[in-house]
Amino acid sequence: xxxxxxxxxxxxxxxxxxxxxxxxxxxxxxxxxxxxxxxxxxxxxxxxxxxxxxxxxxxxxxxxxxxxxxxxxxxxxxxxxxxxxxxxxxxxxxxxxxxxxxxxxxxxxxxxxxxxxxxxxxxxxxxxxxxxxxxxxxxxxxxxxxxxxxxxxxxxxxxxxxxxxxxxxxxxxxxxxxxxxxxxxxxxxxxxxxxxxxxxxxxxxxxxxxxxxxxxxxxxxxxxxxxxxxxxxxxxxxxxxxxxxxxxxxxxxxxxxxxxxxxxxxxxxxxxxxxxxxxxxxxxxxxxxxxxxxxxxxxxxxxxxxxxxxxxxxxxxxxxxxxxxxxxxxxxxxxxxxxxxxxxxxxxxxxxxxxxxxxxxxxxxxxxxxxxxxxxxxxxxxxxxxxxxxxxxxxxxxxxxx
Amino acid sequence: xxxxxxxxxxxxxxxxxxxxxxxxxxxxxxxxxxxxxxxxxxxxxxxxxxxxxxxxxxxxxxxxxxxxxxxxxxxxxxxxxxxxxxxxxxxxxxxxxxxxxxxxxxxxxxxxxxxxxxxxxxxxxxxxxxxxxxxxxxxxxxxxxxxxxxxxxxxxxxxxxxxxxxxxxxxxxxxxxxxxxxxxxxxxxxxxxxxxxxxxxxxxxxxxxxxxxxxxxxxxxxxxxxxxxxxxxxxxxxxxxxxxxxxxxxxxxxxxxxxxxxxxxxxxxxxxxxxxxxxxxxxxxxxxxxxxxxxxxxxxxxxxxxxxxxxxxxxxxxxxxxxxxxx
Lengths: 402, 327
Description:
The structure holds two protein chains of two kinds. Chain A has helices spanning 60-66, 84-93, 118-123, 139-152, 163-166, 175-180, 188-204, 216-227, 238-242, 264-275, 291-294, 311-320, 326-341, and strands at 2-12, 16-25, 28-30, 37-40, 45-48, 50-55, 68-73, 99-105, 128-130, 155-158, 171-172, 184-185, 207-210, 232-236, 281-282, 356-366, 384-394, 397-400. Chain A is of the alpha/beta class.
């Protein structure tokens, strides 16, 4: 099928923002076409479909609503992604509408002891290996994970919390945790984990992707490591960009996240790290949890928030506030996650698959968890935002119509 | 007339003086609301001492004490308080039953609600659990301790003890010492005593000091002897034995050396009042000679506890009882 998108504001992380036309032939972006079906974009924004790095569950409806065409799936769901058969099944289950790229378990059973079959899992469809929302406590094991992954040229996706310091904690040390009487851990637990993994990755010349870096100390370490050439990338979720630990007040379990929300000074450091390029990826951390896991005392509730539906709108707040340009935002939402996963996707250059998102960047709406696909556990419930997904194409095939 | 002098009548005697449906914590209470509860408790102290003619104002009302965590003295205190006011008191010992963690907490709340209790007193091991239940039931809920969060009646009885013994809470230098990190008693006391304009010092080893506790308006100390300088009241907190085996504190004798309220330490404070919420580790955080000495108000705290709980049960059921001005 041949398509011509006209009257679009075209946002490409590689080539910038331009007004004009975009051509698609047989699911691939091409330079031009003589004869094609015309899609009038009416001045709205056409961008690469979002690649959401690190969702906890496959939630196709939420992804469709949020403009997401590909997800990297965390290995620590049920079952754990440490078996090639499971990896292969997961890699296929979303097609054709949603492409799922499994992050295979780096160690068998995510136990942090024995290396998992990384190469076989990669041939079964895994695009990276990871530790899930766990910390590999044994530095010797972590060194071997990185060394082995180096040989396969895949990224090791880590969770940056020193498990010894964060054991039992559900919040960050600070006034809010103290007032609520919640078990908490110091924010330095993150920088400690990052410091170790950076040194090990540097020694092994391995690719390290820290899925969420949420503290000033952690971001400073990543910034310095990048400067000296360590092959490190990192990400964050909108929750840690827009909320601080005070959002947990009144025991609001929708603000119970992993890693936990941080101090306001850390939040500001994260915004600065978006602006200066230290942070490479913004992801939803999508983890829908029903009332049976959230209508509990805070420390007993499960961490996590539903984020796929709100990823675009909450990220556009950074553009509105002048922290990033629109094309750079789509580097964070599409190009960079694609590059960490080694995917040919995430930009609108010629030859790329036509994974396209059409959205109205000015359309106002109010976040309403009740209308979410799986569960409404968002700490942003009720927040007025701007930016609405209009239409979505995966490989040139429309999967969400206006 | 300046605005501050304008006091509508309802503020002085009606339900507007205490507009809260539940007592889930000291947090959220205004200083005058705390003082109102203390004033109410004061009359029950006198009545209890005089063995006065029973006042059965809660006659026909059902009070459920739902204790998800073991307790002896607090449960007993609430039971006596309710019975003295004529309530039908039922104790639910959920700690031993199959109710584990928060799994069925909402279900339990709905069951309690369906029993049509008039007031529910709850103790639970999870911070925030009492507020969660309070949101789910129609009757008044009274927090008898939730995790590390709050234990409001303990703070009220401590404030009442201080007020009676020292004449006022305001201006008193109160030192709270012990396991602050895990203590709901400490949190509620910090809130109540600072609201009543006491000068609060908290003292603990750094391993048991909550982060940024100074943001609650207190001065933290790690050196007990320095904290004690000029103290009017010394409030010792219990340290769980399992925290004195190397996890937070190397040993109980090392704790006593650095933080124990010994006779020697108290000798430097001949006028200070000694308090402890109990149960005590005699010979660890407090010496027997101090606990039983002339400066100790520890048994008086227990006595004030019954009076404070009677006051809270009375006040929180006034709307249900359609007391004039409260309906």
